[in-house]
Design a protein that fits this description.
By secondary structure, the protein is of the alpha+beta class. Among the domains are: 65 residues, no CATH class; 88 residues, Immunoglobulin-like (Sandwich). Helices cover 16% and strands 62% of the residues. The two termini are 57 Å apart.
Length: 293
């Protein structure tokens, strides 16, 4: 063991056989050597005590652990004999019917095809040119009442506006009468012609200096377009079909008749026998280890 000693002057550790401290140069006298040696002996005794204390502590913990394991509950399987019901096989002779083949001549009829011709009305799709009105819509935009001039309020005529929208792919000129229904039931207005391009809209407007009841319009003229109309027509067509007639023929066929035969059949009957079974029992671990269960 490499023993050390401390310098009384500076406290530095030095080799045990050194006469002078390597840190401060102070002489290490014999008294210092004895003190250091005694200190080393005491340290060794203290370490031995600690080791013994750790050993006994670990030993006690180990014993406690073993005791806990020995008293842990567990299960064991105990064999025993019990009487069991089962189906016992046995052999018996049994009769049965078997189909035995034999030959038989049979007359029969078959359907033979032949060709039959006839005329039939057949539908087909025909075309023709048809004039149709363009697809359009009219929506009211403005319908304002006549305002009389009072004090600082200036006169404002009644106004009606409609949007005519061409939903079709062809341009055209639309003529629409636009106006008002007066309180006396009469109507006032004017016919407005508007060229409306495809998928576009135009505004139709009319004003009137007077009191009105409501706004109204009347379509006078809508442009037309020529379209191809498809319709169903019919014509006589020569056709043929396959018909069938009965023709007698003969053939040999195999038929079957019943014959009685015998065979061994395995059947089952109720019986009893002893079998080994196991019963589960809860015991302590030490009882299982020493076989005390």
């Amino acid at each position: 063991m490499n023993e050390k000693k401390k310098c009384k002057m500076c406290g530095a550790e030095n080799e045990f056989n050194l006469e002078v401290c390597i840190a401060c140069g102070q002489k290490m006298n014999d008294e210092t050597k004895e003190v250091v040696k005694e200190t080393l002996i005491n340290d060794k005794i203290e370490k031995d005590k600690i080791k013994k204390s750790k050993f006994w502590r670990n030993f006690v913990l180990l014993m406690i652990g073993l005791m806990v394991i020995l008293v842990l509950p567990t299960t064991v399987s105990i064999p025993y004999q019990k009487l069991e019901d089962y189906q016992e096989p046995y052999t018996v002779q049994e009769s049965y019917l078997e189909q035995v083949p034999y030959t038989y001549v049979e007359n029969y009829y078959v359907k033979e095809p032949y060709t039959y011709t006839y005329y039939e009305k057949e539908s087909f799709t025909d075309t023709r040119n048809v004039e149709k009105y363009l697809d359009y819509s009219i929506n009211e935009v403005t319908c304002s009442q006549y305002v009389k001039p009072v004090l600082f309020i200036s006169e404002k005529p009644a106004k009606v506006s409609y949007h005519i929208y061409n939903h079709d792919s062809i341009d055209g000129v639309f003529e629409v009468w636009v106006g008002f229904v007066l309180p006396n039931g009469y109507k006032t207005g004017q016919s407005v012609s508007a060229y409306v391009s495809s998928y576009q809209l135009e505004e139709l407007t009319f004003t009137f200096n007077g009191v009105i009841s409501s706004c109204t319009y009347d379509v006078k003229s809508v442009p037309k377009k020529t379209v191809i109309d498809y319709f169903t027509n019919s014509r006589d067509v020569l056709k043929s079909r396959t018909e069938y007639k009965d023709v007698m023929k003969s053939r040999e066929i195999t038929r079957y008749r019943d014959e009685t035969k015998y065979r061994d059949v395995i059947k089952y009957r109720h019986a009893q026998r002893y079998v080994t079974d196991y019963d589960t029992k809860s015991v302590m671990m030490y009882q299982r280890i020493f076989g005390w269960c």
